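Late entry, 4'-deoxy-4'-aminopyridoxal-5'-phosphate complex.
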Amino acid sequence: MEIYFDCSATIKPYSEVLKTFETVSLDDFANSASNHGLGYKSLTILEKARKQVAKYLNVQPDEIIFTSGATEGNNLAIKGVCHREKKHKKTIITTKAEHPSVLEVFHALETDGFKTVYLDYNKDGQLDLNQLKQALNDDVSLVSIMAINNEVGYIFPIDKIYKLVKENSDAYLHVDATQAIGKEILPSDSYDLMTFSGHKIGGLKGSGVLVKKRKVYLDPLIDGGGQESGYRSGTSSLGLDCSLATALRITMSTLDERTSKVKEINNYLRNELSLIKEVVITSPKSATPFILNFALTEHKGSIIAEALSNNNIYVSTTSACSSRQAGESYVLKEAGFDPVIYKNSIRLSFSGFETIEKARIFVETLKRLLKEIKPNVN
Ligand code: PMP
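Prediction complete; structure with ligand written out below:
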């Protein structure tokens, strides 16, 4: 039996999503910018997909920009606003817990002369909102804050943050909602820009959306034929864009059912893991039930994750994007955990299609491996 607890990295596409992709790619292969009957048909289908996505997100169709995923969306939102506003405003704010597709953009902009502020948070995942309030002023063009953290599952209070931003500046709030779509409802009046990827919600890799509200101005990153209202030139990928609409529909319509399943599994695992002497659960109780992070104090997290993999159990150490690098979690480090914790953490992440039986096998296997493998944390 295969046990896949790495759903925050990606999940398998729904078969309906693949069907949409295949049907649209074959039947409506024409370029949606072509001036002929087949082109017009493709354009009609593209606009229908845009309307559907907008409806599920409760925004307007002309606020949807199809992208290749969250990395592109985050780059476009942040660099796009900064380039547009650079003559008047030079300060941008984010948190220390963001994904590299936000943090690295901030680092690059810092080199270009922007003033950057990185907000702190504590072990309970509480963001320092006083620090945010103090950093807000007329020089701030953008605040970029994730809705749910991908490693530990912290839920940041986007509603409250939006209010604070608007009361204390005229900056835009960009929300990286890659781990929130399909896990939580994000009210559409709590952000100015919002990004996510298709493949985290049962869609296809290479699909994604940036929501840009009408009142937001930004410069495009790619110049060309002016597709996606000029914000993302390049021939539209009708198959991917339509497949994303299908994935979004399925993920939204199964949200309640998946959430209650995941809560049950998360509770079970929290109880079982808390009985293991060397386990420290690092996801606070307030975290999303879709992510459960814990650390080992006597074993190397990477060695145990590899041993689990050899037993057909797939988990992550830190996030998929950085787990092959340093092997330590900067998200836990910045929260204030000791090195033994942030160097040996394991992330379990779920979609809502898991079973208690699989969770039970995971716990049994983990306990066996912790006994079999010599303690090796120094
Ligand atoms: N933001 C967050 C919070 C993520 O979890 C991820 C994926 N791990 C990304 C952005 C980037 O997504 P993608 O790799 O699909 O572009």
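The two ends are 34 Å apart (CA to CA). Will revisit in the morning.
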